[in-house]
Write a structure and sequence with these properties.
This protein has about 450 residues and is α/β, with parallel strands linked by helices. About 50% of the residues lie in helices and about 15% in strands.
Length: about 450
């Protein structure tokens, strides 16, 4: 019998990694990443999630060393400091934090939970979701839902990008309008995502590195296009809204870019400025800078940070619950193996004893029941102490003891060789004539240990 599977994870995400590093991690798609991981030695289950701000993968293996080895090639070109590696408990907690929005660029944002559901379905389609990851990912999604229904973690405007869009919507009608997002970094990405939820008909993403702009454009469902920064003078005059968020040390837009503009709202959330301040003197141009947005975002951030503490309490509660369930299941696997092996020996020896007693004059039905009950009692009493020890071992994360028990009490160890015609009926053939069935734990033992 194999050791119970455990999760090993790896994460390359914003904060520690650059956009280029996130993009280079894993495969080109969730399904491709999962398929690749499933082909590796020892991997039984696999799950991956990819957004513009994170690339993560999780595998289930019998031994944690196999999990670490399987994930070695996930981010080979990424700096070690930008790669976060997770053990079983760390993976469970991290998945809950991601689904709750605690690991997002915008604290508590809602988009990530939908992205995780999509990743779950893609991973399932690739054959990667088994019992361990089924429990882990569905639990994370459940926690994400609780965070948003039981707290106000997702309420209000918290990012400069979303605040810019809200400010613009108060100035002009964005319906069927064109919005230009200048910059493909964190703030530019958030602005594009927020615009995707408005009535604009087109989003243009401009960036010095066009592939990075394309990566942001792929994140939105609204019709989108990408241009180089040098092409801005051609697109800005046709825009209704321009949001700038580059890391350029010098302005990327000056008044000449707006000469032919009719009515445009320009919001500069870069620091240092992306837009020459003199642009605001042009008629038809409403220019706002970061100072106009910071106050509203600060107040919302403070509220969300308070709510985040409530979300962390939910995570602690749910993590403790799933870990208890996992530990109990791991212990029960070993205990079931132990009882299964004992039941086979009991059944064999009981059959021999009853055959001898029958040859010596036979037994009444009551006598036969007494002998069988004694055999059941012996097994139960002999295994009560190791059963309790295995439960204690699970509670103390002593997986070495559980692994040893699985090896010692492997129910296949002394099983008779399979003969033609018997395949598919091994469970029926190995049931003891009385007491617990193959692989089950007697109710009496469970009741005693639960007291």
């Amino acid at each position: 019998m194999k050791e119970p599977g455990a999760i090993t994870g790896v994460s390359v995400a914003h904060g520690a990694a650059t956009i280029d590093e996130i993009e280079s991690a894993g495969g080109e798609s969730v399904r491709g990443t999962v398929s690749d991981l499933l082909a590796r030695d020892g991997v039984e289950e696999a799950f991956a999630v990819r957004t513009c701000n994170r690339a993560e993968a999780y595998v289930v293996t019998d031994r944690t060393t196999e999990g670490r080895e399987a994930l070695e090639s996930f981010a080979p070109s990424v700096r070690g400091a930008a790669v976060r590696r997770l053990d079983h408990e760390g993976s469970l907690e991290h998945l809950m934090r991601v689904a709750s929005g605690l690991e997002s660029l915008v604290l508590g944002e809602d988009q990530i939970i939908g992205q995780m559901r999509e990743a779950y379905e893609e991973s399932r389609s690739a054959g990667g979701i088994g019992p361990v990851l089924e429990d882990a990912v569905t639990k994370a999604l459940h926690v994400g839902e609780r965070a948003r229904t039981e707290t106000a973690i997702n309420e209000g405007v918290v990012s400069l990008g979303s605040a810019a869009v809200r400010l613009a919507a108060g100035e002009i009608d964005l319906t069927d309008g064109t919005a230009v997002v200048v910059g493909a970094g964190e703030m530019g990405t958030l602005a594009a995502r927020t615009l995707d939820d408005t009535a604009v008909s087109e989003i243009v993403v401009a960036n010095r590195t066009v592939p990075n702009a394309a990566f942001v454009a792929e994140e939105v469902d609204t019709e989108s296009s990408v241009v180089h920064l040098s092409d801005l003078p051609a697109v800005v005059p046709e825009a209704d809204l321009v949001i700038t968020a580059t890391g350029s040390p010098e302005p990327v837009l000056d008044p000449t870019a707006f000469t032919d503009a009719d009515r445009v709202v320009c919001i500069d959330i870069a620091q240092p400025r992306d837009v020459d301040p003199e642009t605001g003197d042009l008629s038809g141009v409403s220019l706002y800078d970061i100072d106009a947005l910071e106050d509203v975002t600060r107040r919302t951030r403070e509220r969300r940070e308070t709510e985040a503490r409530e979300v962390e309490s939910i995570i602690d509660e749910e993590l403790d619950r799933i870990l208890r369930s996992y530990k109990r299941k791991r212990a029960d696997d070993a205990i079931s193996a132990m009882y299964a092996g004992a039941d086979r020996v009991k059944a064999r020896e009981l059959d021999r004893a009853l055959t001898k007693l029958d040859a010596q004059g036979g037994l009444t039905d009551e006598q036969r029941e007494t002998v069988e009950a004694m055999a059941d009692a012996l097994v139960g009493q002999l295994l009560a102490a190791p059963t309790r020890s295995l439960r204690d071992a699970a509670g103390e994360d002593d997986w070495e003891t559980i692994r040893t028990a699985l090896e010692l009490f492997d129910p296949e160890f002394d099983a008779p060789p399979e003969t033609p015609g018997e395949r598919g009926s091994a469970d029926d053939a190995s049931k003891a004539p009385s007491g617990a069935p193959f692989g089950a734990i007697p109710d009496s033992a469970t009741e005693e240990l639960d007291d």
